[in-house]
Write a structure and sequence with these properties.
The complex is a heterodimer of chains A (476) and B (308).
Chain A: H1 4-7, H2 13-18, E1 25-28, H3 35-44, H4 49-64, E2 89-91, H5 107-116, H6 118-125, E3 128-133, E4 136-142, H7 144-148, E5 152-155, H8 156-162, H9 164-170, H10 182-190, E6 195-199, E7 209-214, E8 221-222, E9 225-230, E10 235-243, E11 251-253, E12 256-261, E13 266-274, E14 279-282, E15 284-289, E16 294-301, E17 306-309, E18 312-315, E19 321-330, E20 335-338, E21 341-344, E22 350-359, E23 364-373, E24 380-390, E25 396-405, E26 410-420, H11 423-430, H12 436-452, H13 457-471
Parallel strand pairs in A: 3-7, 6-9, 7-10, 8-11, 9-12, 10-13, 11-14, 12-15, 13-16, 14-17, 15-18, 16-19, 17-20, 18-21, 19-22, 20-23, 21-23, 22-24, 23-25, 24-26
Antiparallel strand pairs in A: 1-2, 3-4, 5-6
Chain B: E1 3-13, E2 20-30, E3 34-38, H1 45-53, E4 58-68, E5 87-89, H2 95-101, E6 103-106, H3 118-137, H4 140-153, H5 172-185, H6 203-217, E7 221-225, H7 233-250, E8 253-257, E9 271-276, E10 279-284, H8 286-295, H9 298-307
Parallel strand pairs in B: 3-8, 3-9, 6-7, 7-8
Antiparallel strand pairs in B: 1-2, 1-4, 4-5, 9-10
Helix pairs in contact in B: 2-3, 6-7
The chains are: A alpha/beta (476), B alpha/beta (308).
Chain lengths: 476, 308
Amino acid sequence: MSSQQDELKETDTEARFEFKKEEKSAFQTEKGLTEETVRVISEDKDEPEWMLERRLRALEQFQEMPMPTDWPGQPDLSEVDVDEIIPYIRPDVDVRAGVDDWTELPDEIKDTFDKLGIPEAEKNALSGVGAQYESEVVYQNMQERWEEKGVIFCNMDEAVQEHEEIVREHFMTKCVPPSDNKFAALHGAIWSGGSFVYVPENTTVDMPVQAYFRMNSEGMGQFEHTLIIAEENSEVHYIEGCSAPKYSAFNLHSGGVEVFVGEDAHVQYSTVQNWSKNTYNLNTKRAIAEKGGRMEWISGSMGSKATMLYPSTILKGRGASDNHITIAFAGEGQNIDTGAKVYHNAPETKSTVESKSISKDGGRTNYRGLIHIADGAENSSTAVECDALMFDNESTSDTMPYMEINESKVDVAHEATVGKIGDEDIFYLQSRGLDDDDAKQMIVSGFIEPITEELPIEYAVELNRLVELEMEGSLG
Amino acid sequence: MATLEINDLHARVAEEDGERILRGVDLTVESGDIHALMGPNGSGKSTLAKVIAGHPAYEVTGGEILLHLDEEDVADIDAELDDEDYHWKLLELEPNERAALGIFLGFQYPAEIEGVTMTNFLRQALNAKADEREELFEDEDEESAEADDDDENEGYETSPMEGPADDGEIGVAEFQEILSEKMELLDMDEKFMQRYLNAGFSGGEKKQNEVLQAAMLEPAVAVLDEIDSGLDIDRLQDVSKGINALRDEQGTGVLQITHYQRILDYVEPDHVHVMLDGEVVKSGGAELAEKLEDKGYDWVREDAFEAA
C-alpha cells in the first residue's frame, strides 16, 4: 500500500511537513473551472438549490473581474491559471461528514495527521479538532462538554445541511461577499470543506479549537470556508494550521474566513501557514465586531511561493476593538505580501497592529495595511507598528501603511523600522560558541519575541520552530 | 594547562588595500596567568583580540595562532584522542569552534541583542559549546555513527503544538545551579537573567556581563578588551573580583587589554606587555605597568628603536 515516499524515514522537522502521500481519492473533478465543474461539486455535496445559485453567481463575478496586477510590489500571479488546477478532490473516506475517531480513517490519511502531530495536540491542549484532507474534512471532533452547552463545531458542508438557516444568512453575504475580490469570487464558486463554529451567548470555550488543512495532491486547489459566529458575551479561540508537500506544479489555496463577533464577545483567530514553496496563498479573511466586541488576528506566514493576506476587521459597534499580530518570513523566491485592514465605523473603537517581517536570500516581504476611521468615529484610537529585518542586500522589504482618517477626535500612532541583521551581533554570538546559523536564528527569534511572548505558549513554540525550519541550511 | 601561542602574526583589514595593523605579534599566554597588554591608541591591541577570536573583518596575512591543550583541558571528552587533539591551529577554525576549544573574547562594546533573555542565551551558549566540543574531538567514524542515531531519534515524536523535546546537554536545573553560583561570585542581581542580552544595560552592567559569560563558559584563555573602560570604582572592584576568580577558581589564563594602571591595582598581572605599531615591543612584570603609568610610552618607543 505504501508508496516509495513512505519508505523514506522521517528525519527532521522539515520532513514532517514535506512528506507526500500517494494520491488516492474517491472522486475528483477535471482540471479547470466551468459552470459544469461548479454544478458537479454542488451535486456531489448534495447541496440545497440556494447554495448552487450562490456558487454560480460567484463564478460569473470571478470571470468578470480582472486579475490584480497593479499593486506596487505585489506577487507575480501570472502563473496562476485556474484552468490548470484541480478544484475538487474528495478523499476516499466512507463517512461524508468526517469521522470522529482517528482510527477509522484510512491508514495513509491517519498517518499524515499523526506526523503533523494533530491527534497528540488534541489530547493535550484543544477543545476540538477538524482535519481537512484535500477538499473535504475527514475528521471532526469536539469534547462533549461543549456540545452540551450548545457549541457547534462541524465542517462547513455539514453546516449547510444541518444548520441551513443560519448559514444561509451569514455565508458570504454581509462579511465577505464574492464581489470583494477576484479570489473571493473564485472561492465562492468552488469552496469546499472548512469549519463552522457557533458559540452561544455567555459561553466561554476555554481551550482552543483547531482546524488543520492539508493539501496532498499535485496541482490541486484548496478552497475551504470558515464561518465563526460568536454570540453576545461569548469567547472562542480558533487555530488554523496548513501545510502541503512540495510539487513541481503549482498549488492554489484560496480560503475564505468570516467571523461575526457579537456584543462584548471575544474571538481570537490564529493561523500558522506553512504551505510548500509552490503554493499560491490568496485568502480573504474578515471579521465584523459589534458593540464592545474584540477581534484578534494572529498570523504567522512562513511558507508559500506567494501570499496575499490582509485580515480585516470592521469595528461596527461602539467600543469594539481589534488587535492584529502578524509575522511574515520570506526566503528565496518567496513574496509574502501581508497586512491588516481595520475599519473604525463607530465611536470609541480601538485597534493595534504589530507586524514583524523577515526576508533573506532574495525573498520579499510587504506590509500593506489600511486603517480607515470614519467620520463620527470619535475618540477612536489606532497604533500601527511594523518592523522589518533583512538578512542581505538581495532581500527586500516594503511598508505601505495607508491611513484614511475622516474624524478629527482620534488618536493615531504609526511606527516603522527596517534594518539589516548586524555582522557584529552575529560575531558576538559566535564568539560565545553559537555557529553562524544558530547565531542568526537567535537574533531572529529575539526580533519576533515581542510578538511571540503575547501568544499562547503552544502557538509560540510552533511559530519559533517554523522560523528555525525556514532558516536551516539556507544560510551561510 | 592550556597555552595560547601567537607567532609572528600579521593581519590587515579585510578589504582591498586594507590597512596593515598587526606586523609580527609574538605572545604566549598560559592558563592560570594574568597578562596585561598595554599600548597607545591605534597600536593594534583590539585588533589582536578580534583576530584571536576570528573576527571576519580582518585578514591574517602571516604567522599562526596555536592552542595547546593537556589532559586536564579535555577531561570532559570521552572519545579516544590522538596527538592532533591537543594542538590546534586556530586560524583554521570558525569563531564558534575557537570558543568551544576555550577561547573567550570579552568585548569592549558588547552587542545588544533584543528579545533574547540572558538565561536563554547563556544556556544555548553552554549547550552549543558542549556540542561543538564533541564534534571537534570525536573521530570521523563516530561522527557518522552519531548522525545515524539522530535520524532515528528525531522526527515526529513531539507534536507541533508541544514544541521540541528539551534535548540540550545541560538541563535547566543544572544550568540554574551553575548560574547562581557564578552570579553570587560576581555579586550580580538575579533580575539580570530575565533581561534581554545587553539591551539597555549600562556600560558597567555590560562589562560585568562579559565577565559573567567568561565565568559560565570557563575558557582556557580569556581575552578581555578594555573591560575596565567606563567603570566606576565599585563596579571596577566587582569586575576585578570576577577576573581574579576566573584565574583562581577555574584556572583561566587572562589577557587583559587596558590603557590604565587602575585595574591592575585590583587584578595584579603576572606579565605586562607593551604593543606599539602592531608589534609587542616590550614585556616584563607588574613593575613595567607602573613605569608606563609614570613615564608614558615614549621611552618604550625609544628603547624599541634603539634595539632596532
